[in-house]
Amino acid sequence: MEAPHNSLATEAGEGAAPGTAAMTLAVGSPEQMQALGRRIATVLRPGDLVMLTGELGAGKTTLTRGLGEGLGVRGAVTSPTFVIARVHPSLTGGPALVHVDAYRLGGGLDEMEDLDLDVSLPESVVVVEWGDGKVEELSDDRLQVVIHRAVGDTDDERRTVTLIGVGARWAGLREELAGGLPGRPAR
After folding, report:
1. CA 20 to CA 11: how far, in whole Å?
2. DSSP single-letter state for residue 121
């Protein structure tokens, strides 16, 4: 088995939107996905918007659990599918984690207004699962995490995770996250 690497596989390449930076990692287990979340949490700060995209069972909540551990928040981080949003206050004086599952929400930001995410964002880290096309207007700067997994009837736990930093806040994505990332560069 190949040892994990901590280097960057790709940066924003041809066709990438201006002001974006990207990197892709191979993650081999739920434990590595959670470790990736803990590593990402080390660079998060109040006002950060993190959007998670991936198939059902891809590992979005597992990654968020790692974010919660890394941020030192209270409460078990579980899928907020039926409650739509959960707030996990910090136990360490850092930002709260607002975990949103927008899967059942059909509309854009208008439907999300009842959640008051625009009010929570300045002092929290807001993580939105299934947020594509729904929450981009909350911030010009966001970290998009796209998780790909094998589909169908499979026990394959390997995932390809692409981190896409959008906006000036994430211009240094490579430098901020490259050190100590779990997983290995995707091929």
Report:
1. 9
2. G
Amino acid found at 75? G
Q: 106-117 burial, b if ≥16 CB within 10 A, otherwise e?
A: eeeeeebeebeb
| Rg of the chain (C-alpha set) | 16
DSSP secondary structure letter of residue 29: S
Two tokens, residue 29: 């287990």
pLDDT digits (tens, 9 = 90+) for 160-174: 999 999 999 998 877
Q: φ, ψ for residue 162 (rounded to 5)? A: -110, 125
d(CA 136, CA 130): 11
Using CA of residue 15, residue 57, residue 124, residue 7, what is the dihedral sign?
Answer: negative
Cα separation, 175 vs 173, in Å, equals 6
pLDDT band at 101 (very low <50, low <70, confident <90, very high): confident
Q: What is the pTM of this model?
A: 0.81
Q: At what angle do helices 60-71 and 30-41 cross, to 10 degrees?
A: 40
What gap in Å lies between CA 120 and CA 122, rounded to an integer? 6
| 152 within 8 A of 18, measured Cβ to Cβ | no
d(CA 187, CA 179): 19
